[in-house]
Write a structure and sequence with these properties.
alpha/beta; 3 domains; two-stranded antiparallel ribbon; binds flavin-adenine dinucleotide; single chain; 3-stranded parallel β-sheet; disordered C terminus; FAD/NAD(P)-binding domain; 18% strand; globular
């Protein structure tokens, strides 16, 4: 029998870990504990939370199944590819896999807004080539909204055209992963230097947590 694996948070990171485990046949061992509820992509703005870092920098995030991926701008450029290559880390394979997996493609020209067109023209006049942003957006769906991109990605996509981690819920559930919404972790239980489980607030959740904790032993 496999050991149980508890993942806290169903955002970009948590769901990727859950998916990788499910693809290795460990789905039935995985529980994803999520503080927020299931949310409709178009209502994602309701789940925004702003917190202050110790340096008083405001950090925005979304507390719901799929996490902050519901309110991203949908940008998917390769991050620090050249810099990493220059120190001997070649992520070409990983970038390509991700781009295939979540459908990252450059913004097609027919989706450029007036501002973007002006920027492209001005860049050309100055001798620069403007490169379209790779987006994790299905532009056919996106255009079905108002026949042009609405620009509301960061409030929650009204047509579900943008990839979010919540779009994996069905597949993960089918592969045996349990997703527990409305379950906020308050504390990680550490025994002998190892994380053994979590505790959550409120009576009902505490007993539930004990169960999770016991299951993990
Ligand atoms: C407005 C905005 C636009 C962005 N646009 C882009 C973009 O275009 N491209 C891009 O690559 N990135 C973008 N980002 C950044 C991107 O969203 C984050 O980097 C990414 O979502 C981080 O993943 P994560 O799993 O660490 O956190 P999250 O996606 O925030 O997931 C964390 C999850 O954990 C849950 N959680 C938190 N605390 C607890 C707890 N105590 N118990 C249980 N569950 C808990 C939360 O509810 C959430 O579901 C944007 C971010 C914002 C705010």
């Amino acid at each position: 029998m496999g050991e149980e694996i508890l993942i806290v948070g169903s955002g970009a990171s948590g769901m990727v870990v859950a998916k990788e485990l499910a693809e290795r046949g460990r789905g039935n061992d995985v529980k994803v504990v999520e503080a927020g509820p299931y949310a409709q992509s178009e209502n994602a703005i309701k789940y925004y939370e702003r917190i202050l870092s110790q340096q008083r920098i405001e950090i925005a995030r979304a507390l719901c199944v799929g996490g902050t991926t519901l309110v991203t701008a949908g940008n998917g450029p390769r991050s620090l590819e050249k810099e990493l290559k220059s120190i001997g880390i070649n992520l070409e394979q990983e970038f390509s896999e991700l781009e295939r997996e979540i459908g990252i493609k450059p913004v097609p020209e027919n989706c450029y807004g007036e501002g973007t067109k002006k920027l492209v023209d001005a860049s050309a006049e100055l001798g620069y080539e403007a490169v379209p942003m790779p987006k994790v957006i299905d532009f056919d769906k996106c255009m079905s909204c108002r026949r042009k991109p609405c620009g509301e990605c960061v409030f929650g996509c009204p047509t579900d055209a943008k990839w979010t981690a919540a779009s994996w819920v069905e597949e993960l559930t089918r592969k045996g992963v349990t997703i527990l919404p409305d379950t906020k972790v308050e504390k990680v239980i550490i025994e002998n230097g190892r994380a053994r489980g979590v505790s959550v607030n409120g009576k009902e959740k505490i007993s539930y947590c004990h169960r999770i904790s016991r299951d993990l032993q």
